[in-house]
Amino acid sequence: MKKIIPIPRRNSFLIAAIVSALGALFTFGVNAQILVTPSSLQSEPSSTYLSNSTFKDNALGNDGQQARRTHSGDVRGVYQAFTWSTDELLTAVGFMVSPSFTTSVDSNFLYTADQIWQLDIIEVKSSTSGSIKSDGQKISLSFTLPASAVIAGQYLDLSFSEPLSLINGSTYVVNLYPTEDKNQRILFASATGKEILGGGQSLGDGATSFNFPAASTDQTFYAAVIPEPASLILMGSAGILVFLLRRRRNGGPFLASHG
Fold first, then answer.
1. Residue 67 maps to a domain
2. Nearest residue to 79 via CA among 172, 184, 179
């Protein structure tokens, strides 16, 4: 007769924690608080789903598009439109800071202090000049953008604490703009052509009109998704192995069992 070895309580907690973490990774909770983590990247992440890989502003002299909020109430943002043609989940977006940023913007307005910004991801009608669907999906995320993440010639990466579920086949605009008045600005790189759906400068808080069908260029932009399943399984397995090795090194067995 086979002896049934019960799973100890502490290992049950570990397994439950792993299952819970995987569930959070693949499920976008409607009421979950999604956090945005800004950072600077020299190139697109390997999990990029769409970008304007052919046309990029990679040289000085391109004026790009300014996102700013001045003491006089002048609010401008930067946006990019695209069609979402996948069931994969969105994990990050990125806009390139223009290589011309530190030379094209008045030194009195350079981005030197942390500031609160907002990222709107808006479903729009592709048949018009970006008018918002009355019943369309809209995700609005507020976050603090540190000055250390804004580097000329590098991407401003905005990663989400929970993956976002967009509607396959719908057109979206990603709109990024400052909501806190610190009288400073960022110059974002315009691409040298139009490979996605077009981008440019938005006007005012929570802009509702985007002229992307008529835009002749994109912003230098990317949208990233969850890595393909094999990579996730590999990363998860590696994490569990590291945990077990550390447990063994500390004098404990890989998995405790009852005799």
1. yes
2. 172
**Residue 252 pairs with which residues in a beta bridge?**
none
> First vs last Cα of the chain: how many Å apart?
15
Q: Which domain holds residue 108?
A: 34-230
Q: How many domains does the chain have?
A: 1
How many Cα neighbours within 13 Å face the side chain of 125?
A: 10
209-238 b/e with 16+ CB inside 10 Å = b?
ebebeebebbbbbbbbbbeeeeeeeeeeee
pLDDT digits (tens, 9 = 90+) for 34-93: 999 999 999 999 999 999 876 666 554 556 889 999 999 999 999 999 999 999 999 999
Prediction pTM value: 0.74
Question: Residues 243-257: pLDDT tens digits?
Answer: 566 666 666 554 554
Phi (first) and psi of residue 232, to 5 degrees: -65, -45
- Residues whose CB is less than 8 angstroms from the CB of residue 243 and which lie 6 or more positions away in sequence, other chains included: none
Count CA atoms within 13 Å of residue 75 on its CB side. 15
| Dist. CA 1–CA 157, nearest whole Å | 58
Contact 69, 181 (CB under 8 A): yes
Assess contact for 171 and 81: CB atoms under 8 A: yes
Let me know if residue 256 belongs to a domain.
no
Strands 75-83 and 90-96, how do they pair?
unpaired
Residue with tokens 């992440």: 45
